[in-house]
TrEMBL record:
It comes from Mustela putorius furo (European domestic ferret). This is ADP-ribosyl cyclase/cyclic ADP-ribose hydrolase 1. SUPFAM superfamilies: N-(deoxy)ribosyltransferase-like. One of its GO terms (cellular component) is plasma membrane. Belongs to the ADP-ribosyl cyclase family. Keywords: Disulfide bond, Glycoprotein, Hydrolase, Membrane, NAD, NADP, Signal-anchor, Transferase, Transmembrane, Transmembrane helix. One of its GO terms (molecular function) is phosphorus-oxygen lyase activity.
Length: 305
């Protein structure tokens, strides 16, 4: 009997050989088990969610948190006079508009519930459009706090500078890549959003409306820009009495275009056809002053400094 017991002197070697083999077997077994436990769900995930690859940048990291944070910042701090808005509901409506959907067949209807939740009245005479002059126009509304660019309204403020898209085979956002407007598709969730909110912003405008244009580029009025393609055509002639353009030249830069240039005349013609009066001013003083504050050296600022 003792001969068969493990640990007995005579049987020590074969006995421990067996236990070594057992250990190795167990090691291999558990190793495989762990590999299977890890590999199977990963495999299933990859098989279930092969997120499509696009040419454009993916969804901004922390997209949802940024949206919510900006919504609260805007409604509590930036424009508390807007009154109560349900930021949780707005955030949900935003993501519902594009999650689990093909990011190349986005529609304005997808964003309709979001637009309804973020309705906002901009007072007459206080709408400011911009084209190729984003920085300057926003510098101006920062100091002229009663004027609104689209990015000074709740929805524009929330989405400004962010990127987002979903995927029809997943309920997640695609953080890897999103469709590029030029290279992938024009009706992507991002562009369709900006077209829809720009359209609403222009439809809501009333009184005398303004636009900051860039006189240091050749196509000061560009018919392919959001302003030239969407906003100009969605102004309501029955409410908008006049569009006043401010053509701003870079301080010390080239003056390639001005109020009398052909591209600005094109804008004038379009507005005339739409029965909206047009006026234009080169280097509008208050905005020129801002440019000079940032860049006081050149002689064109000598009147201000
Ligand atoms: C808008 O501006 C026009 C022209 O300057 C003025 O006649 C009108 O009263 C203004 N409307 C409001 C609501 O301030
Ligand atoms: C005009 O466009 C150029 C090129 O994009 C830019 O560098 C410049 O700041 C713009 N100027 C104004 C007045 O917005
Ligand atoms: C994009 O959507 C618009 C409006 O829904 C539609 O008229 C147009 O044909 C679409 N374009 C493409 C390339 O699908």
């Amino acid at each position: 009997m003792a001969n068969h017991r493990c640990g007995s002197v005579s049987e020590e070697e074969p006995c421990c050989d067996i236990s070594k083999k057992t250990k190795i077997c167990l090691c291999v077994f558990f190793g495989l088990l762990v590999a299977v436990i890890i590999a199977v769900p990963v495999g299933i995930l990859m098989w279930r969610h092969p997120l499509q690859e696009w040419k454009g940048k993916g969804t901004t990291a922390h997209f949802y948190e940024i949206l919510l944070g900006r919504c609260y910042t805007y409604t509590q701090i930036v424009r508390p006079e807007l009154g109560h808005k349900d930021c949780q509901k707005i955030g949900k409506a935003f993501t519902t508009a594009f999650l689990s959907k093909d990011p190349c067949s986005s529609t304005e209807q997808d964003y309709q519930p979001l637009l309804e939740l973020t309705a906002q009245t901009v007072p007459c005479n206080k709408t400011l459009f911009w084209s190729k002059s984003s920085q300057l126009a926003h510098d101006y509304t920062r100091v002229q706090g009663d004027l609104f660019t689209l990015e000074d309204t709740l929805l524009g403020y929330m989405a400004d500078g962010l990127k987002w898209c979903g995927d029809p085979r997943s309920s997640e956002m695609n953080y890897q890549s999103c469709p590029d407007w030029r290279e992938d598709c024009s009706n992507n969730s991002f562009s369709v959003f900006w077209n829809a909110v720009s359209k609403r912003f222009a439809e809501d405008a009333c009184g005398v409306v303004h636009v900051v244009l860039n006189g240091s580029i050749s196509n000061t009025f560009d018919e392919r820009s959001t302003f030239g393609r969407v906003e100009v055509f969605n102004l309501r002639p029955e409410k908008v009495h006049q569009l006043q353009a401010w053509v701003m030249h870079d301080v010390g830069g080239v003056h390639s275009d001005s109020c009398s240039s052909s591209s600005v005349n094109n804008l004038k013609r379009i507005l005339k056809e739409r029965s909206i009066a047009f006026s234009c001013q080169n280097n509008y003083g208050p905005i020129r002053l801002l440019q000079c504050v940032k860049n006081p050296e050149p002689s064109s600022c000598r009147f201000y400094v």
